[in-house]
Amino acid sequence: MRSYGIRYLVSLLLLSLATASSFTNEWVVVLNRNADPDQVADVHDFENLGRLHEDHLENVYHFRHRSLATLHSQHRRDVTDSLNSYHMVESSEQNEVLKLRKRSAVAVEVAKKKKKKKK
Asked: What does the alpha-carbon distance between residue 72 and residue 96 come to, in Å, rounded to a whole number?
């Protein structure tokens, strides 16, 4: 029973490492119908990169923050909250990048041995 619990914890740890994420300096912003995207971007120190999916989505824009680094290990909730509280913004979300890590050399060798045994 105890070894099962340890294996479970190790599996959870490996899963969390496989899906470690970073956050970019870019946001998807949904604006109110008559809002000016350039004005909203300037007020919050963003660059308006244009509409997303112009044929399918209305008032959804791609913004890049001018003063933040390209990647962050933590979500910048303060920036998202500031955008979301602005009267011309319906909602916004910071872009997240999932990183998948390669398996270790040991895991690759174990997988190769299992394949050989099956043959």
From this structure: 9
